Amino acid sequence: MRRRSSRLLAALIPAAALSSAGFAGEAAEVPPGAVVVWRGDGIERCGMAGGKWDPLDGACWYPIDLLTPAGDLELGRWRGGRLETARVRVGSYPYEVQHIRLEDDSRVNLSAADLERVRRENALIGRLWSRRGPARFRLPLAAPLESLPGGGRFGARRFFNGAPRSPHSGADFAAKAGTPVLAAADGVVALAGDFFFSGRSLFLDHGDGLLTMYFHLSEVGVEQGDPVLAGQQIGRVGQSGRATGPHLHFAARWRGARVDPALLLEPAAIPEIR
Ligand SMILES: [Zn+2]
Q: How far apart are the CA of 180 and the centre of ligand 1, in A?
């Protein structure tokens, strides 16, 4: 049986990019889609919601999925064979609403054939989220464009031609068509293809359940199964799939959780349990 230490509550240090704040005796709040880090000496294992994994760089990293409902989450770490726990509160959904107008309504209100295609693609893509292997990355990740403009809209609730659609689970970076797209870390090409919504797309597996994604490319320069190195050119910016202009949609799933990729590029902004 698990043993629980008395350390149920921990304060969270406010992070630059997140308005989380620590309160003694109360769980601190993070937005859905955040990553939380818990550092310490001699961490043996990390755990959350029944899952367990090894520390990375000596610390426990807890990716919290964008669609996690508001409420408390218990985080665990094992030291000297003992479980210690901390609690964070996932706040209510804080992201903006975005209205997008597309000339081509067939990419919003799908035909039966397109719906079937999307179902097939989603099944193929969904199998990636359970991939696990030894970590081949460290934070921060490398920028996916040589010069990374401001960008984002991670989490935006989206309406296409007035119809509500899935929230935005990545960050958008405007760049000229043809701009080289670079691998964010060492890894392997888990999937490469041309998909209905994301267009020409690459999914890289960096181990430890971390996958990064590069969507709407004009050109894909690697194939499924290819090894890649951080900073290596893997494709070019485009506007394939459902896009209103050339940009890179860059996204990350970590152990299945859709997280804000900006945090992985700028880990100083990751809220920390102290
Ligand atoms: Zn996007």
A: 17
